[in-house]
Amino acid sequence: MIADSSQTAALLSVLGCRMIRLIETHSDQLARGVLERVENSELCPGFLRKVPPEELRERIQEIYHHLGEWLTRKTERDIEVRYTAIGERRAGQGVSLSDLMFAIVATKEHLWQYVAKEVLADPRPVELFQEVELAQLVEQFFDRAIYYAAIGYEQCQAGQGQAASD
Question: What is the CATH number of the domain that holds 69?
Fold first, then answer.
């Protein structure tokens, strides 16, 4: 379950505000980096033939740009609604489930590479502690995103299978 929003907000206000602001401020640059990662990956070669690159970039940029809100104000239900819809959309576009999961994981991994680079640029013990605390919240968010995207994907697949048998 997502941490209580008041606890999460307090945690971020004390430990992670700087990093969240940094991520949100550089959301467009980060989203372009994920898009490049997906374009250049041998693990999901067909993804961008089925999903317009600009659509993918916009969705990723939106998550990064509002990451603080997703971590502090959004509920598990909000994540469920958002990522179930994404899973359904990708299934409807013919994207494989593994490609969808790769795109979400790539979004998370790219974020961590950026945070690690920023923290290592000015390593202070407090910043390293902040990264660990932030990691817990972000990992939880992306784990839920993967889960609900898979549910949406499966719902779309089940709906298509049922429509074919009718």
Answer: 1.10.490.70
Query: For 45, which DSSP code?
Result: T
- pLDDT tens-place string over residues 99-132: 999 999 999 999 988 987 876 666 666 665 666 6
Q: b vs e for 22-51, b when ≥16 Cβ sit within 10 Å of the residue's Cβ?
A: bbeeebeebbebbbebbeeeeebeebbeeb
Quick: pLDDT tens for 62-110.
Answer: 999 999 999 888 999 999 999 999 999 999 999 999 999 999 999 999 9
First to last CA, the chain: 38
| 95 is a domain residue | yes
